[in-house]
């Protein structure tokens, strides 16, 4: 093997080298997938914000709620304020109601 050129030696290692290339290819695919996932997540977040702004502009209940009425800590109802979790549930129910109204 000493007298063989480097390419000839690499060919004799065939499967080992190919496995290394496959691993590197898999890592590259995983990296691309993570980048794609971040882009999709960012676009989804922007779409949600735009939709909420549109519903706020239309005066849809729970989307045009003044921020002073929303309790930030813990997400549950505090005094006369509505919690963030409860507000999200109310928004979800309102969207379901609107979808039902459009279908009929």
**What sequence of helices (H) and strands (E) makes up the elements?**
HHEEH
Radius of gyration: 28 Å
Shape by Cα distribution: elongated
Head-to-tail CA distance between termini: 79 Å
- Counting DSSP H or I runs of 4 or more residues, the number of helices is 3
Mean pLDDT: 81
Strand content: under 5%
Low-confidence stretches: none
Helix content: 55-70%
Report strand order across the widest sheet.
Answer: 1-2
User: Which structural class is indicated by helix and strand composition?
Assistant: mainly alpha
Number of strands: 2
User: What can be said about the biggest beta sheet?
Assistant: 2 strands, parallel
Query: Oligomeric state of the chains?
Result: single chain
């Amino acid at each position: 093997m000493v007298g063989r050129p480097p390419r000839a030696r690499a060919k004799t290692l065939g499967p080992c080298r190919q496995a290394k290339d496959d691993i590197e290819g898999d890592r590259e695919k995983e990296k691309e997938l993570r980048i794609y996932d971040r882009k999709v997540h960012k676009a989804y977040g922007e779409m949600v914000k735009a939709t909420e702004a549109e519903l706020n502009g239309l005066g849809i209940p729970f989307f045009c709620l003044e921020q002073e009425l929303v309790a930030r800590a813990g997400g549950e109802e505090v005094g006369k304020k509505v919690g963030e979790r409860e507000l999200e549930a109310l928004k979800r129910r309102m969207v379901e109601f609107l979808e039902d109204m459009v279908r009929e």
